[in-house]
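seq:
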Amino acid sequence: MTQVRVTDACAKRILELSREKGDDENLNYYLRVYVDAGGCSGFQYKFEMTSETELEEDDVVLDGQRVVVDTASLAYIQGSTIDYVQEMIRSAFCVVENPLSESACGCGSSFAMKNFASNPALD
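struct:
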C-alpha cells in the first residue's frame, strides 16, 4: 500500500478531464505524476493525463485512485498529498505536504530534497 493521499478535488478533476476526452464510462485515463530533475529548487513535479494503454511496467496505481506514479518518482513523493487547486491566477494539480521536501519554490512546482547529498538530481 502506498503512502500518497489523493484529495477529493484531485479525484474530481481527473474524472472531469477523462470525460472531456470522451471517456464517460470506461475510465481509461489516469493522472500521471512524476518527478523530474530541474526547476529552480532541483526537482520538479510533473503531471499529465495518460491512457490505460500507456501504463508502464514500473507504474504504481495509487490504491483506488485514477493516479499513477512510476516507482522512481514514488520514492520522492511518499507521504505526500496530491491535490487540485483553483486560484484566481491558475488552476493546477500539485503535490503538497511532501515530508521529503526541504524547501520549495514560490509557485510550488519544484522542490529540494531533504539530505540532498544522498538524493542528487541526476540529468
